[in-house]
Give the backbone structure.
Amino acid sequence: MSDTAYFAGLDIGGTTVKSVLVDEMGDLVGDMVEVRSYVKDGYEATFKQLEVALNELTANAGLTRECIRGIGMDVPAPSCDGVIWGKANLADDWVGTDIRELFSDRFGTIPIYMTNDGNAAALGEYAVRRKHHGGLLLVAPGTGLGGGLVLPGGRAYEGGNGLALEVGHISVPHREDDGTLPRCSCGLDGCLEAWVSLVALRRRVAIELAKPENANHPLNDDSPVEEKAFRLRDFAQEGDEFAVGIFQQQGQILGYGLADLVRVFDPGLVVIGGGLAESDFRDQYMEWVMEGFRERAWPMYLNSPIEPEKKTTRFEWASGGDSAAALGVAFSAREMFR
């Protein structure tokens, strides 16, 4: 058995499990391993895949599983103290199950840290910023709007029940052209996620294409609205006025909502993830975010009133890539169990 301790990170997604291995120094050992997750087939089916991933991680590094001293795991669902509270995209048998304890028992009670995927992604962004020791707020537009908050020192803020930082479900006052608040996927009206998400893009594309002035736009064809929303980014990257206008509105509303989150948490650093982090117009999108932020934020959350040249809130794009969440929970396991 190696004298060096190793720590695994398992990012359980709806389709795949992404996994990494780090050593005592926090350095990656080998490459990320990705396997199918089978979460809709039940947690036992997924446990088998987690073992496949761990076996491959250690074999690639010339190690055995006994070298793993701790595991970090994230799940795509709300959970508290290892117990899944909501189904999300999982099979029914996940709900009410102590996933952390059951999986730990398979490894001879190896210690496991478990959190949700938003917290894990935030932890990953913190981990790749080795010189950053303050707080970090992550927001990640995707199908919905996820996020997480890492406190100075590297611990995720999870709340009393592991349910904190549902950033997509704060309320914003922005209304549709007819004066109504858009319905969010959570069932409420006016959530930030109802403006900043892929689902929101689909709604906005359909509304805007229905206007007479957009009747001749190339997106006004017979393709499904899901495909139109997917193609919207390509049009925006080419400077198309219709597409740019939709993303501009989204960015400004995101910034407006972030101003309230920053006022509550004062993280110092805001990281924006999701697919737009890789887009050709991301600099312009960040400017739109800042426009919305300036509209709502108090001046002291932009620059210090004592040292005007000092920024009190910095904005950056996510840089952790596909392995960020797995890396984040691996780092947390390292901090807790070494």
Observations:
- The two ends are 16 Å apart (CA to CA).
- The longest strand covers residues 16-23.
- Helices lie at 43-60, 99-105, 117-128, 198-209, 225-237, 241-265, 282-296, 324-337.
